[in-house]
Amino acid sequence: PADPADPALLPPLQSLQVFNRGGTAVETSNEPPGTRSPMFSTWKHMGGRLYAATGEHFIFNPQTGQYQGTRKINRTIELAQDGQSYETVARVTTFDPSGNVVATFSARASAERMQLEPIPDRP
After folding, report:
1. Successive 10-residue mean pLDDT values, the chain, 123 residues
2. What's the sign of the alpha-carbon dihedral 44, 47, 48, 50?
3. Residue 110 neighbours by CB under 8 Å, 6+ apart
């Protein structure tokens, strides 16, 4: 299995993220559910189209389910002019159960707003 501390060995990550009014967010991804929890975040508008976000999730051993620590992701997000997508750069830090840093790496990603697809059917 791929080492979760080495991003070069991981398949492309896909996630669903919900940013709430008031500066909170929640995210889940296509990583195996037994390897990590959903991520809970806080975010803040930094001016213009820039935002900062910090999130954290628990990580687990995929074979045993044993708690291995946490992963913190600090991001700078630039919202597109039309508000329908964004680009982000992140610093990812993995901590062991005692809070010691065991790995760090940078990541870049892009996102698109989920579009509403109404159906004509009526209840």
Report:
1. 56 91 96 92 98 98 95 98 97 97 95 96 96
2. negative
3. 85, 86, 87, 88
Both structure tokens of 96: 């062991």
Q: Report d(CA 62, CA 87) in Å as an integer.
A: 30
Query: For the chain, what is the radius of gyration of the CA atoms?
Result: 16
Taking CA atoms, 98 is separated from 8, 70, 82, 93, in Å, by: 26, 10, 43, 14
Query: Token pair 């074979």 is at which residue?
Result: 63
Structure token digits, residue 118: 């109404």
Instruction: Kindly report the backbone phi and psi dihedral angles of residue 82, in degrees, each rounded to the nearest multiple of 5, phi listed first.
Output: -85, 0
Q: Extract the tokens encoding 51.
A: 């935002």
Which DSSP letter does residue 7 get? G
Tokens of 27: 């995210």
- Alpha-carbon distance 46 to 96, whole Å? 31
Closest CA to 91 of 54, 36, 63: 54
